[in-house]
Please model this.
Amino acid sequence: MGVPVTYNLRNLVERKGTTLMTALGIALTVAVLVTAIALTAGLNNVFAASGDERQALVLRKGVDAELSSTVSGEAYQIIRRLPGIATDANGEPMVSPEGLAVVNLPSVDSPAGMNVSVRGLLPIGLAMRTVNIVEGKMFEPGLRQVVVGESIASRYPDARLGKQVRFGRGTWEVVGVFSAGGSAANSEIWTDLNQLRGDFEQQGGSSSLLVRVDSAAAIATLKPIIDDDQRLRVQLMPEKEYYQRMTQSGMPLQALGFSVAVIMAIGSAFAATNTMYAAVARRSREIGTLRALGFGRWAILRSFMLESICLSLVGGALGVLMALPVNGFTTGIGNFQTFSEVAFKFEVGPSAILWGMVFAALIGALGGFLPAWAASRKNVIAAMREP
Model:
């Protein structure tokens, strides 16, 4: 026979002050955890939306980022003629030589400046991407014009439509804003490859090649051909895999968030323990009465454990409510591979909420076990004699 749950809930309500203080401590812990999960989820969404299953990147052998890569013009000419490369409507191989540079621009978060990626593209590179111009127009080849991702336009005041940004050897006119569907491209500035090469002395080569193949399966066939060709000194990597590796840039912040949450959880568990010990001490006669009515030791143990978990779940619910305002909040994080900022939105989704509530229940179970055990071991006669 178990103790009715209403008995535990009534006790929590009767001890409003203690319940609220303990719940708030647990709420702060859960809020930190949910925020850390929301950060990682938002960053994962950005990179999950980046890349195309039919495409792959060609980088210099031994490097894992475009910024530290150089692909020669000779390698470009060889690769674009390999079998398995898709062609466009004009029969041209869909191989896009691309340049990547990092420039410093003042942002809304850092007036002193943040690093931003500038990508140089030819018309074939634009044709291989799916973006929408939401303001203005696309840049014209041969002119010092740029288009910016919508995250850049929102976070960098100098990079808005109609303004000029300064990098390289002069100023560049912002003629358009594009949306790339939530992908990492929203955190980039695009311009003409030849103009970028001139400013950053990248003549004769490119940072990478974006290659489209006939089918996703063709990447596996093409990879050993390119990787093993000693003339090229490059490697081929599926575009999706390349962006998945970039999610590692959020790992340090996620680890920090989890570490802080665990440390706070220890303190919250002690708070729950103290609260439940106090409850046990005050309710000795009640415990004795329950035992006299026939409730066994396990029933008492389960009852006080349940009460502790309910207390923690109240804190967990408060913690989720505290974390909800960050949902959809846009911020940026430095990418360790490109040394530039990637903008993303915090996502407090069902998974983050579920983990927060499970974490709260775990705190309650750990914090409530010893007091519940002590309650269950009370002698009936001695308990009823206690004041």
Summary: DSSP finds 13 helices and 14 strands in the chain. The longest helix spans residues 16-48. The two ends are 27 Å apart (CA to CA). The CA atoms of residues 36 and 257 lie 5 Å apart.
